[in-house]
């Protein structure tokens, strides 16, 4: 998956753009069950993108860090910081980043030894 494809997939159902605005305008409550369902579904999509086969380098992956967007949702009261979906997407990002860092280290070691 390319960075553009990943961003497009994540952006398709991003609740921050439209639904969070409804909360700010008072048209929807932050604890609305429908908003929570949409948000958790989006987090699951985000997690799946992060868990997809590696096609991104570390710089591209860092652009997909879910923390800023998750923090907005937590700070607005839409999600709780200890929500399982929040933990899952953060862990998926950490694992993907760790995997890339390990792979980069192996590649660097291999090239240092002329392999």
Please describe the topology of this protein:
Elements (H helix, E strand, L loop, with lengths): L2 H10 L2 H10 L8 H19 L6 H6 L3 H9 L8 H29 L3
Radius of gyration (CA) equals: 17 Å
User: What kind of sheet is the major sheet?
Assistant: none
Helix-strand pattern: HHHHHH
Give the rounded overall mean pLDDT: 88
Task: State which percent range the strand residues make up.
Answer: under 5%
Percent helix among the residues? over 70%
What is the count of distinct domains?
1
Task: Walk me through what this model shows.
The protein has 115 residues and is an all-alpha fold. It has one domain. It has 6 helices and no strands. Helix 3 runs parallel beside helix 6. The chain starts with a helix and ends with a helix. 19% of the residues are buried.
Summarize the model shown.
The chain has helices spanning 3-12, 15-24, 33-51, 58-63, 67-75, 84-112.
Q: Can you tag this structure with a few keywords?
A:
115 residues, elongated, mainly alpha, 72% helix, 6 helices
């Amino acid at each position: 998956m390319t960075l553009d494809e990943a961003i497009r997939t994540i952006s398709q159902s991003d609740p921050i753009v439209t639904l969070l605005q409804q909360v700010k305008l008072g048209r929807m409550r932050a604890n609305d069950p429908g908003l929570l369902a949409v948000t958790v579904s989006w987090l699951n999509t985000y997690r799946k993108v992060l868990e997809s086969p590696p096609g991104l380098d570390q710089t591209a992956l860092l652009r997909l860090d879910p923390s800023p967007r998750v923090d907005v949702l937590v700070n607005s009261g839409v999600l709780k910081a200890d929500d399982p979906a929040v933990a899952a997407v953060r862990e998926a990002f950490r694992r993907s980043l760790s995997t890339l860092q390990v792979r980069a280290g192996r590649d660097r070691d291999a090239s240092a030894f002329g392999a």
